[in-house]
Amino acid sequence: MKNGLYSAGIIGTGSYVPEKIITNEDLEKIVETSSEWIVTRTGIRERRIAGENEATSNLSTIAALRALDDADMDPKDLDMILVATVTPDMPFPSTACIVQSNIGAVNAAASDIEAACSGFLYALNVAQQFIATGFYKNILVIGGECLSRITNYKDRGTCILFGDGAGAAVVSRVEDGYGFLAQYMGADGSNGNSLAVKAGGSRMPASAATLLHDYHYIHMDGGEVFKFAVKIMSSAAEKAMDIAGITKDDIDCVVPHQANIRIINNVAKRLGVSEDKVYSNLDRYGNLSAASIPVALDEAVKSGRISKGDNVCMVGFGGGLTWASNIIKWSKDSNAIKKAI
Ligand SMILES: CC(C)(COP(=O)(O)OP(=O)(O)OC[C@H]1O[C@@H](n2cnc3c(N)ncnc32)[C@H](O)[C@@H]1OP(=O)(O)O)[C@@H](O)C(=O)NCCC(=O)NCCS
To answer: Of 177, 208, 240, which marks where a domain is finished?
Structure first.
């Protein structure tokens, strides 16, 4: 405990992506594009698409159970479940409540959080506050998306980018000196129109006209979003390092939002962090919005790219517009666990 606050950290991670793969070659058959264009301009080679009977809660439930297993925690010990998503199963009940029921977390409060692709980091940072104050002991944070449901497969500017998946993390008290060293969040609502789903809410309820105009799909000014992303991701990561009192040389692994490999490489360059310290799985999954960072985090941990004592920087941006970052001194010895197995 420091200054009356508990140290909070991540004690388990899990992820799940659906089985169905859509490759760039598959997309060549439905829109005017080429695999070469997609790989060169984005770094994406394939993405996963949820099956007909799968919704965000299904993907999130599997990721949640894997994270709980990794944390060696009974769902009944959870105090709260937060699901970050822009593709909930339905407006309400929340996807978090559906997951709560699926996993039998009968003692947990449950709610969704929406900050688009920054959503998982927003939810993680909210969870950290509840743990630090001692109000709650164990919180399950999930980023889950079925972006295929709001993607227009006639629009080559967006359909090449997005996929479906879910990632989860269990946030709990950790040893002092470990866990969250810094967190930072921001928003600029004045530029929200550059990345939006216009219909389906109270402003423009779903109707024959909204369907006709494709207003229930993602609309995006790619160039604007690209410029914003490079600038805000690097400044948000630097801000978190400042708050934590560390420099780029102290960072062991950056887990960025996976939107475009050119954005990720630009951010690494601006930060002065070598590309081998930056985790990316963009080629396999594309942009998973709120699920992107937790899926990448889980893979980075499980593949041994992150181990106890490492300073991990997560940073993301998204619709809103929003951005968020944090620095976590990793508290779990995943190598020791792997060796024991
Ligand atoms: C979308 C994105 C990949 C487009 O790449 P870009 O280099 O900016 O490409 P442009 O939009 O300038 O388009 C260049 C040309 O390629 C064309 N093009 C766009 N999509 C294409 C595709 N899938 N296949 C082939 N050509 C395509 C454009 O029509 C344009 O043609 P023109 O010059 O004849 O008008 C890029 O802007 C991007 O990744 N932006 C960020 C998006 C993002 O991260 N969104 C999610 C935020 S969480």
So the answer is: 177
